[in-house]
Specification:
It is built from 11 helices and 3 strands. It is mainly alpha-helical and about 240 residues long.
Length: about 240
Amino acid sequence: MSGMNAYLYKAPLYEQAYRALKAAILSGELRPGERLTDQGLAERLGISRTPVREAVRQLVREGLLVGTPNRGVTVFRPSAVDVAEIYAIRASLEGLAATLAALNPRRAEALRKMERSLLRAQEAASAGDAAEIARCNTEFHESILEASESPTLVELVEPIRNKAIICRLSSLRYQTNVEVSLREHAQIIRCLEAGHSEEAGRLVRRHITEAGRRFLEQVGAPDTGADRPILRFYQSALEDGGIPS
């Protein structure tokens, strides 16, 4: 696991293991649903089991690993309820961020970052590099939050950020999803450039809501909790064309 080993530098072993494992999860090197053991991870990282157990416990607390440390864990694999929660929350918060960004007279630098992210994503799409596409996609959405100049919005999105990255990486392995996503990113940039605040919010809410729909249809998240309010709300939003403002 070369990507994981790159994080083994002079630092406390727990931190080395934590950073290496987190990077491997968020890059897709460790796949959603993959079962892991302390012993197996220790052997792959070339360190003892004690710091690996500490790292695993932290990642379980963050929701990136699921299970009981010392008894084996699996990489977070979103259920239908997870997808509904992640995408509904993101659509609501990032839609507001886009509205604020369009009203921000200092949005030019963030727009340049978004354009660079889009260009790199287009190049990665031509090369078939799903991991790089996902990284660029993440940067694009982070730039919208940055342009909102709302630290509170950034803090509210942070708890689901890593789970959203896992969903994004899985979804963007499908070429159709990539093409739609890049086309919509270009539309969002143009809208923000023009300062159309209400339309920017609407576009981002629809963009994220529809990304969640494609994830559910193509990736096949486990269909659990059909009676949960969040899933019923999300299904209603899909029928109505996006999360309401």
